Amino acid sequence: MDTETILPAGADKLGEKCGIIGIYLNKVMENQKTDDATNSAMGTAPDGSAEEASYNAAKLAYYGMYALQHRGQESAGIACTNGTDIIQHKEMGLVADVFDGAKLDEMGGKIAIGHVLYTTSGQAHIENAQPFVNRFKLGGIAVAHNGQLVNYDQLKEFLEETGSTFTSQSDTEVIIKLIAKSYKKGLERALTDTIQMIKGSFALCVMTEKSLIGVRDPNGIRPLCLGKLENGWVLASESCALDAIGAELVRDIRPGEIVIINDDGVLSFEFGEHTAKRSCVFEYVYFARPDSIIDGIPVQEARLRMGAVLAEESGVKADVVIGVPDSGLGAAMGYAKASGIPYAMGIVKNKYIGRTFIAPTQTEREKLVFVKLNAMKSDLQGKRVVIIDDSIVRGTTCKRLITILRRAGAKEVHFRVSSPPVKYPCYFGVDTPSRSQLISSTHDVEEVRKEIGADSLAFISCEGMMRALEGLNPESFGYCKGCFTGEYPVSVPGELNGKQL
Description:
This protein has 19 helices and 25 strands. By secondary structure, it is an alpha+beta fold. The chain has two domains: about 15-150 and about 205-275, Aminohydrolase, N-terminal nucleophile (Ntn) domain (Glutamine Phosphoribosylpyrophosphate, subunit 1, domain 1), CATH 3.60.20.10; about 295-500, Rossmann fold. The protein has a seven-stranded antiparallel β-sheet with strand order 4-3-5-2-11-10-12. Strands 6-7-8-9-13-14 form a six-stranded antiparallel β-sheet, covered by helices on one side. Strand 21, helix 14 and strand 22 form a beta-alpha-beta unit. The longest helix has 15 residues, at about 300-315. The chain is elongated and about 70 Å long. Mean pLDDT is about 85; it is low at about 1-10, about 30-40, about 40-50 and about 355-360.
């Protein structure tokens, strides 16, 4: 991933940097029955004969990436193999713009990995697009990475001193070069050697001509799950990608686990010492699609519970509850049910406008709020309104939202937030502004309220957020809450920390 984590001025949402997917298709059996979906994925001959079939893992990766598009909109790429060579195609833009049917049919492949990238505008170059592919005499390897390495600079310097050259500013290139450097020791040893050197957050899809590999960092900061197809296996950042291609969710990859998938099945082993699990809590607050299940927790259920706790902690007399589309809707429903206040649509989202942080300048980004969202006067006029959003970063978006609601005739606007105040930067694959640009880092709640123009403002407490998640997963685990508390699961080098303050 791109290692610069400061967003362009004006962005008012945290940006998840990417989504990854891996497809492994088993040998087609001669008696395999095919339906329309299988025909499309496997390229079955017009007469339906399986023995004439050709693999098309690239097409399945495409559908999975489409489902993960919310995790990154800057570039899209797929690398695939038919067992003898690795080919790739990647460009800047959305998945549907980068690939068409002819390109996917041309790529085919028995194994494929795909990647969608979100990066800062200054780093939005094709050189940083993924997957990265390295070819050498022992074979080829491709890597797609979600996360961020905190020791990127040191590792890059080490590799350069030993003869490596770099063509990008992505820490994923460091990972693939470390694997290639140890590849003569064998794939498993190369992977474990590399993983023990890299520090930070990482969920990896790695592909060779014969295998698909999934890796999750020892703290499990970034998500990765395993799915089963009738004729193969899938790795993906979110389970919604599995649903998109008809795969069944088997389980999440465990923190510190490596899975190697080949024709023999799925081999699993752990690397390094056991550490406390600290998955990113913002997956449940904002990043993940509501229909995904991450680490055994249905995302929508987590948001409903956060909204209910928010109502318990900061109830207010009101006539209607509304949510900011899309990630504020679950919490708004939970708030409405717990408070007994009617839920209404309130705000309509223009489906053809991307997330506000895609706009290239601050002025354009702020204007896009009015293009992207509009209020429904029939739901709001003359009413006391509770509006729920997932977070406040700089405060620019919610200030304009409140303006929209007042223009629509809202008598009172009470702003509620289903995450605690974001006071600290993230160093593990989430784009956050510098600490001085985080409004809750420099203002208390009352000062933020005045700045955004709300009649009242309240955030869920850290304790309340954890209470909302309790019981949703029977396994004992924890979360990374560094952006709220400043306490991180992995120590951050001083020079990296200095870039953020």
